Amino acid sequence: MTRKRTGGSLLARLQRRRTRRKASPFLIRERTLARRKHQCPFCHRHIEEGELEKNFFVCPECSHHFRLSPRERIRLLVDPDSFRETDRELTTLNPLDFPGYEEKIRRVMNITELGEAVVTGVGAIEGWEISLAVMSFQFMGGSMGSVVGEKIARAILAGVRLQLPVVVFTASGGARMQEGIFSLMQMAKTARAAGRLEEAGLPLFVVLTDPTMGGVTASFGMLGDVTLAEPGALIGFAGPRVLEGTIKEKLPDDFQRSEFLLHSGFIDRVVEREKLRSVLAFLLKAHTRPRLD
Amino acid sequence: MKKKKLQQKLQELLALAERDRIDIREEISRLREKITGDDDPAGRAWAKVLKAREPDRPTALDLIENMADSFLELHGDRAGGDDPALVGGIGLFNGEPVTFLGHQKGRNLKGNILRNYGMAHPEGYRKAHRLARQAEKFGRPVITLIDTPGAYPGIASERRGIAEAIAANLKLFSSLKVPVLTVIFGEGGSGGALGIGVGDRIFMLENAVYSVISPEGCASILLKNSDQAPAAAGLLKLTADDLLGFGIIDGIIPEPDGGAARDHPAAAAVIKEVLLRELAELRLLSPAQLIKNRSRRLAQIGSFSEPNGFLMEAAPGKWWNRLRETIVSRLPAITSPYGEQGEKETGREE
Ligand SMILES: [Zn+2]
Question: Does B4 touch chain A (CB under 8 A)?
Fold first, then answer.
């Protein structure tokens, strides 16, 4: 697959986007909008039917990386037919008896055709086998409840069990409030899983995608041996609205974006979507040396 | 007895309101409900939230001073800062050295400006990280005292990586080779609390609360109205009773009559007694056993159903055949992806 570059250097395109992007960071319908209006909601470039799909769901003009469903992500990332899903039938209960929670989950399941806010399994990237977890912002904002925490922990521990590197794609608004303290504790559960992977001498590669906030950033999201991010992704702990409430003023435009985190030293690289597969393949290849212990 | 006290409080409130002409209808209805024994979980939860936030409650340093024979505070994260909102140091606890860590609120406005209302920046969590590793090196148990509305949500905090600092602590504390005892003695605010809240034994004072989000935050997001905070407090199930019921904490530490605010030494004495008892038990375990138990504890927290157990979808295909040889041959006995450390087989079903 090749991709035509238009509109100058990456930096130029990113800067252009920064000035033009003013939609809410939690906008979820950006692609529906693009499809319906046949134009990019950020730079207003005309978009042909099927053009985004051919271009890794990246706007050819402003390089906006549209959000992906886990299926699309997996299709773009792993070798054809190599992915096998695990733990698909884990379903959440309602530990706090939160009113309306079960109905909401059922409704979201129907709309998204997903079981929960993360898809896990084993697959291969350019022949390198991995345990993979891909989160979905579509499913209740990618919030981390018991099932998300458990599936992420299992995907990481499957790495320990099968001696595989682990790759995690994050996308989350934060905690699943309806699960209260159970949601909070998933941070500790997944962090411990990452610790066990480390003790086994196996690598954890994290790719932060738009958006990754709250408890997901503050647990496995920041525990990768190598941490990558897609361009322009919103990444942080407290959400922009909360921050603006504290400081009573507007935040700078690039605040909490991937490039900001790169500058402040919290991620290793910003990687464009079309290059993710080859960068991950490189990392997987570079981590196959036998262990020294 | 208790009702009599409440009646008395109601009379006092009414007199005060009369004198100062203030609107206290809400407080009065809450008290009336208590007196009549009305079942009102939200009201009770909200009362705990207010109690946990009382400015006269003991702070971490108050508790440490009252519990330890002597205490030496240590400062700095060795990466460029020291956070007064999260304190730590070495104390002699019944003659034995331990490392204390705790969120520190101020007693008044000036104190709270210095202590940032107990809301730590990354430097606080990195100081905790440093002191926990130091404790591990010298075989000292760690006692963490939690009382924070949350990690500080600010620009500087984000820029200096508050998420990374908390994440690093979760990983470190969940595999620390020395006993870790945790007491939530006021507000347990979300990730900011959990950042020093992973331990072998977790206790709450009877009027403490512990939650993934503040009732105000939950109300404004889910109920679209921050005035609904009392209702949200009920929904969040954040009291010590709730958390004990969920198996998240190990016990509830009673407070002196009228709450911990009334008598700091008495509150500290009860906490000390509980901690000494638990510490004696934990000291008998090897580091490997400690970590194993802590791992299991964390792995078991969750509420989900799993009809068929661990299942890998089987499908034909060339790659799958190769995968079967290389991976699945290592899989057969797996009913759960958890390994030898013996974590649970399936999720907790309720
Ligand atoms: Zn565009």
Answer: no
Sorted by where each begins, the domain ranges of chain B are 1-39, 40-304
pTM: 0.84
pLDDT tens, residue by residue, B158-198: 999 999 999 999 999 999 999 999 999 999 999 999 999 99
Cα B180–Cα A187–Cα B129 angle in degrees, nearest 5: 45
Class of domain A67-287: alpha beta
Cβ–Cβ under 8 Å, residues A159 and A223 = no
Which residue is closest to B193 within chain A, CA to CA? Answer: A184
Q: Which two tokens stand for residue A69?
A: 């469903």
CATH class of the region B40-304: alpha beta
Nearest chain A residue to B218 by CA distance is A177
From ligand 1's centre to the CA of A73, what distance in Å? 20
Return the closest-CA partner of residue A228 out of A168, A188, A186, A177.
Answer: A168
Among B212, B119, B309, B228, residue whose Cα is nearest residue A143: B212
Contact B208, B60 (CB under 8 A): no
pLDDT tens readout for residues A166-203 = 999 999 999 999 999 999 999 999 999 999 999 999 99
Interface test with A, best of B144, B170, B200 (most A CBs within 10 A): B170
Please name which of A122, A140, A31, A3 lies closest in space to residue A74, comparing C-alpha atoms.
A122
Residues of A in contact with B241 (CB under 8 A): none
Give yes or no for residue A230 having a pLDDT over 60. Answer: yes
Radius of gyration of chain A (CA): 19
Would you list the domain boundaries of chain A?
12-66, 67-287
Q: How far is CA A195 from CA A203, B179, B271, B290, in A?
A: 11, 17, 31, 15
Check if the interface score ipTM surpasses 0.85.
Answer: yes
